[in-house]
Amino acid sequence: MNENNKTEGNKDSMMNNNNKTEDNKGSKMNNNKKTKVNRGSKMNNNKKTKVNKGSNTNKSRKDINNINNINNINNNNDLNDNRLDGLKSKIHKLDEENNELKIENRKLKEQLKEANKKIEKLEEKDNAQIGLIPLKQNKESPYINPILQCLLKTKRLFDYFLNDYPKSDLNKQSKKNQLSYKYHDLIDQISQKGKNLNIDFAFKAKNSKDFLHEFLDILNNELKDNNNNSKITELFQINSERITIPTDELVNNSNKKNENISCGNYILFDLNSDEYKNSKTLHDCFTKHRENNMKQTEEEILKEKTNKFFKINSPKVLIIIFETNESNNKKIKIKEQLDIATYTSFEKQKDKKINYNLYGVVSKIKNENYFIASCCDYDKKIWYKYDEENKDNNNNKIIYNLQNEVLDDNNKIPLILFYYLED
Question: What is the pTM assigned to this prediction?
Answer without folding.
Answer: 0.65
